[in-house]
Amino acid sequence: MRDEQQDIRVAIVYPGDAEVRQNATADNNRFSPLFDALAQLGVKAEPAVYHPDFWEAVYQQLLQVDGVLVWVNPIQDGHDRTVLDSLLRRVADAGVFVSTHPDVILKMGTKEVLVQTRHMGWGGETLLYHSLEELRQALPLRLAGGGARVLKQNRGHSGIGVWKVELAQPAAAALPQTPVRVRHAARGSVEESITLDAFIQRCEPYFEGAGKMIDQPYQTRLPEGMIRAYLVHHQVGGFGHQAINALYPAPEGAAPADAPQPGPRLYHPPDLAEFQPLKHKLEQEWVPELQKLLDIPTEQLPVLWDADFLLGAKDENGEDTYVLCEINVSSVAPYPDSATPMIAQATVTRTQAARKQR
Question: For a FRET experiment, which of 76, 158, 218, 276 has its CA 20 to 30 Å from that of 226?
Answer without folding.
Answer: 76
